[in-house]
Hints:
Elements: H1 10-20, H2 25-32, H3 36-44, H4 50-60, H5 64-68, H6 72-80, E1 82-86, E2 92-96, H7 102-138
Antiparallel strand pairs: 1-2
Domain HTH cro/C1-type: 14-67
Coiled coil: 106-133
GO molecular function: DNA binding
Amino acid sequence: MSTVPKPRHIGRNISRIRELRDMKQEALAIAIGVSQQTVSSIEGSENVDDEKLKAIAEALGVTSDVIKNFSEDAVFNIIGNTFDIDNNNGSSVISYGCTFNPFDKMLEAFDKNEKLYERLVEAEKEKVALLEKLLSEKK
Length: 139
């Protein structure tokens, strides 16, 4: 069994991003100034030259890196972390699940506040010491 990762199929990534954007091959072809058959050919090829990839990325509203590193697992992860909740009035609300522990975030905030308070107290002590020094020098 090989541990070498298989190369990404750029054409397939372009196709999936185009479909997720609800864009037809014809629309992409018009946006980049080629025929629909050319777009079909690009989507069937494993590699795409950088200049053409940049034009396609711009037409799809993403960067070239997004196309190169596109992962369906990441898309499904995002979709899996969102779900619909039906309100009593019949409308649907999209709710996003937490990807962090709110209690941990609250503890982090308390720690930051404590450190800020300690720094503030230290700064005030320094001010008092400086004022006392100035007052003793004046006498």
